[in-house]
Amino acid sequence: MRKINIIHAILIIVLFHNCIDPYNPPEITAERSYLVIDGNYIAGEASQVKLSMTQNLNDDQETQVIAGANVQLEDGEERSFEYIEISPGVYQLPATDIPLNTLVRLKVAWQGQQYLSQYVSILPTPEIDSVNFSIEDDGIQFYVNTNDPDNNTRYYRWRYSETWQLTSAFQSNFIFEDGEVVNRTDDIYTCWDSDESKEIYVGTSNNLEQDVIYLFPLHKVAANSQRLRIKYSVLVEQFALTREAHDYYKELKNNTENLGTLFDPLPFQLNGNFTNTSSPEEPVIGYFYAVKPTRSRIFVTPNDHEFFIRNNLSSTCELDTVLTADVPDEAGSKLIVSEYYSEFGPGILGYFMASPRCVDCRFRGTNVEPEFWQ
Fold first, then answer.
1. Rounded to an integer, what distance in angstroms lies between the CA atom of residue 121 and that of residue 144?
2. Backbone angles phi, psi at 125, to 5 degrees
């Protein structure tokens, strides 16, 4: 695997960190950028490829995405399937059924250059045995368990997507519409938000007699996290890898953890299984793999833990009392929560109102309940 390794530059920075005159080694700035191909083929599902350029360590510019490329999947029978650009630098292949164990490769054509991955086999992935968690003082640690009875997989990668329920500070019963106050028909009190894993999780059972992964640690959710306040769910995706793909992602994990996140510039050019056919010595960053993944979902509620978590809006949101006659003037900056009445009669004096961020949960998520929610 080719590398332009400049780790020694990082060590020099550490050594001179406390010096008066900072040292900026020239190795941090590369003469040119290289193509990054981040993508895969997911059997029977929509697959994505993202194209961008590498950054130098001292480059604070936004990532340069590659638009207008031609991206295709090719199989060993000379068939090709085109990835369509759905947003700048993001290419998607609609769900395509290609038999497992078929050899496929990715082809990217851009600015007169052609980049080809090595042929890889579409791997089956064993089922996830379970996703579970342990309650710790500082939060909830999640784990995954799996095994391959045929001892064929050995190398694994995991990703997760998390979803949690949230509420606004106040429940709105009314809406000011067409010059009058009417009953609200939509629910803007309860919402859901979600996020995707950004860390790299890879594991292997290669040093074991049996192909078993037991209590492999995934992410931890902090004890005071709003995600645990009502109900939390995590969907874990499991991918079988070849040894070469596992080693690539393990090396990528080691280096991104040393510097920051997966999206930070890397200290060296990390090469995978792509080649520029016109310039074979040019580094191309990325590893293409093809797989049929398996998935497992788990839910966590306050009944599963003893953490007391207040709505983080409680300390900053306040109700204002607004006379009925003043509602039209306030409706542009506030939302109606409920009525308030006179102490001396049945009539409505006005309404309790609050800022939209305190009333409308859609500022922090969507009020459309996910299909999988239970």
1. 25
2. -120, 130
Backbone angles phi, psi at 303, to 5 degrees: -70, -20
User: Is 309 part of any domain?
Assistant: no
Give residue 18's pLDDT band: very low, low, confident or very high (50, 70, 90).
Answer: very low
Q: Is the pLDDT of residue 242 over 70?
A: yes
Closest among 223, 239, 247 to 128, alpha carbons compared: 239
Domain assignment present for 285: yes
Domain membership of residue 341 (yes or no) is no
Provide the 8-state DSSP code for 249: H
pLDDT tens per residue, range 39-55? 999 999 999 999 999 87
Q: What is the pTM of this model?
A: 0.85
How far apart, in whole angstroms, are the C-alpha atoms of residue 174 and residue 339?
9
Which burial class, exposed, middle or buried, applies to 332 when counting CB atoms under 10 A from its CB (0-12, 13-18, 19+)?
Answer: exposed
Q: In sequence order, what E strands does 199-343 have?
A: 201-204, 212-222, 232-240, 269-270, 274-276, 289-292, 294-300, 320-323, 335-341
Query: Euclidean distance between the first and final Cα of the chain, in Å?
Result: 47
